[in-house]
From TrEMBL:
CDD domains: LbH_gamma_CA. It comes from Candidatus Dactylopiibacterium carminicum. This is Carbonate dehydratase. Belongs to the gamma-class carbonic anhydrase family. InterPro entries: CA_gamma_LbH (IPR047223), Gamma-CA (IPR052265), Hexapep (IPR001451), Trimer_LpxA-like_sf (IPR011004). It comes from the Bacteria.
Amino acid sequence: MIRKNPSGDLPQIHESAFVDPTAIICGKVIIHENVFIGPYAVIRADELNATGDMDPIVIGAHSNIQDGVVIHSKSGAAVLIGEHTSIAHRSIVHGPCEVGSRAFIGFNSVLFNCKIGEGCVVRHNSVVDGLDLPAGFYVPSTTHIHPDTDLETIPKVTASATEFSEDVVRTNNELVAGYKRLQNEF
């Protein structure tokens, strides 16, 4: 469902993107080319800041927002998802937040008030809250990153983790083309 927010902002969705009919895209959302938005995803930009404005939620080209993902923002803060990035099933990305290009965010992970650098991998059931991760970090499953976390204890992304991330993006880009063809059958 594509709908306006109370301020009257309507999502801007590139014609090459695929948005599953069960997904909810609301308000000041910008979805770039060849993006996959999976079933039951919710991307909602509707809260205002103290001056009555809001920044958009932007999904970069060739990225995928998988089943059940929730992307929202507190008080109109920006949420930026880079290009060729995967946000996996049931993750929560809550602004203010920025996820760099070619990143992978694993199942059930939560991101809030942080920047995830380019090429980072945050594995399943992890939390990154209040601390920025520079490019190329690998957060193991079930890890909690917070302002007191010593980044020297966090490993760097391996070649196999990068290959996995790239394969997920490639697979979801193929799904965009397949689902777009199916849309024309109805």
